[in-house]
User: Fold this.
Amino acid sequence: MDLKLDHHTEDRLTIVEVEGEIDVYTAPRLRELLIDLVNKGNFHLLVNMEKVDFLDSTGLGVLVGGLKRVRAHDGSLELVCTQERILKIFRITGLTKVFGIYASVEEAKEAHGRDK
Amino acid sequence: MATVELTFSALPAHVRTARLVATAIARRTGVAEALLDEVRLAVGEACSRAVEAHRVHCPGEPIRIELCDESGRFEVTVTDSAPSDDLEQAYKDEDGPPVAVNGTELASLLPADTLMSGFGIAVIAALADDVEVFPSAKGLRIRMSWPAAATGFAATG
Assistant:
């Protein structure tokens, strides 16, 4: 499966919908989107990974790169993910301590609202 | 022992094909369903690392994967032809690759948007219960294995 990307903004929070496989072939597209969003002033990003079938360290690198970019603007990059197969690589790499990871977009939006 | 060999040119698009082939053969060899995601991710990491190394050092050379069942194990060997000094090159301005994984500190250790090849090997080591890495001037060989059905390919042929 290829990678499908979409995004929309709700109340200063930009939700990035990702579907498919994030690997060495497709990750550059996600990186370009995150860079473009930050360049256009979107500094609070929520990446919905619920429809991601595969994520490798290349994809992790893109997410970390996005996080570094938004943090440079006092922003945030958080994730929605409940799939064990995807969460596993975050646990292996210790990145569960770096990213806020939520069970649903609604849960993340509530937390974002509280933090504002 | 039955062996499947696959060679592919160093293009990122082919890594997915390698993952799919490895997962299909792992299933056929009798690797437990619960381990197939680990096989898919580990083989993907090894192939991604090899593709990135080839693109730097020898883009025209193919990458080779061997998949075999032997004595109740499903074994995958990924061999590249790039000098295995890429870790040192990637981190020449750093103290070294981020071997120790430590949450928040990890992000600050990363030299760029990519976690680079050393990180991929660390992920493989966490996924396969038996991993050996053989670096040499002629390339890097990563051998990894998982438990499989004792009868292997023959059982499902």
Q: What stands out?
A: Residues 93-115 of chain B have pLDDT under 50 and may be disordered. Chain B touches chain A at residues 12-13, 15-16, 19, 37, 40-41, 44-45, 48, 51-52, 101-104, 106-107, 110, 112-116, 119-120, 122-123, 126-127 (CB under 8 Å).
